[in-house]
């Protein structure tokens, strides 16, 4: 396909993906309050103030937060942000398919198989990480709000809370993709299982440090809630890589199958010395007359 046709197809694919996002965004704009309630409800159940400030001031050791929206245009901006975020997420099957339809014709059969496996396992892993973040964040928020001094009202901007929940879900989801990436590198021959196993001390420390940075809470239980599943997934990836290396070595020892071409060893040690051709087997030298007659014929003749 010429370059112009590729660019035209890319334009059409992008237009379809953007149109799907736009349609879903418009529909989600009518339900943005329900979307906000769904995102913030677990956190508000832990840190939300369900009493007036005067009643809270009289109570002892009561820590909670009030959600606030600041500015005249803030509600409109918040509704637009939530609707657009919902449009990108809910329309992801459409624009991901358009991206795949543009890339797939240029992939080999083995590359397509790896891509299918990556999507098939990657999507559930991302959902698992997001689900874990969605249920860990309320406990994290409760610990953070508990640091508020007594008699002080904590005002939590709603847009910052939404950004925090979204960031936590994305970070946890992407962190769960790391073991799958290691397995894919092993299947393509870039990393061996033995090398991955040799990294286990550094990986445990690195995952722990990542969990400490990714979680905004100083609570060690929240950090372990993120680090422990990634540790388990890492060692599962190492086990899969070691099994794949053993299977690959066994295939190499058995040699090629009946329907596979074997590799030719063309080294001098394998083929031996080249024997000189004897004079009796050599092509007889043509005479001058024969060479002159041969000029009258072309190569085809």
For the structure shown, list the relevant keywords:
301 residues, mainly alpha, two-stranded parallel ribbon, 13 helices, 70% helix, flat
Entry summary:
This protein has 301 residues and is mainly α.
Structure description:
- The protein contains 13 helices and two strands; from the N terminus they run αααβαααβααααααα.
- The protein is mainly alpha-helical and 301 residues long.
- Helices cover 70% and strands 3% of the residues.
- The longest helix is centred in the middle third of the chain and has 37 residues, at 109-145.
- The chain has a two-stranded parallel ribbon.
- The two termini are 39 Å apart.
- The chain is flat and about 85 Å long.
- Encode the helix/strand succession as letters: HHHEHHHEHHHHHHH
Tell me the fraction of residues in β-strands, as a range: under 5%
Tell the overall outline.
flat
**Mean pLDDT value:** 76
How would you describe the oligomerization state of the chains in this entry? single chain
Low-pLDDT residue intervals, each spanning 5 or more residues: 51-61
Classify the secondary structure makeup into a structural class: mainly alpha
Helix fraction? 55-70%
Q: Distance between the terminal alpha carbons, to the nearest Å?
A: 39 Å
> Within the largest sheet, what's the order of strands?
1-2
Number of E-state strands:
2
Q: How many DSSP H or I helices?
A: 13
* Largest pleated sheet: 2 strands, parallel
Specify Rg, calculated over alpha carbons. Answer: 33 Å
SSE order and pairing:
Elements: H1 3-29, H2 32-47, H3 53-58, E1 65-68, H4 74-90, H5 92-103, H6 109-145, E2 154-157, H7 158-175, H8 178-187, H9 193-198, H10 200-214, H11 220-254, H12 268-271, H13 288-294
Parallel strand pairs: 1-2
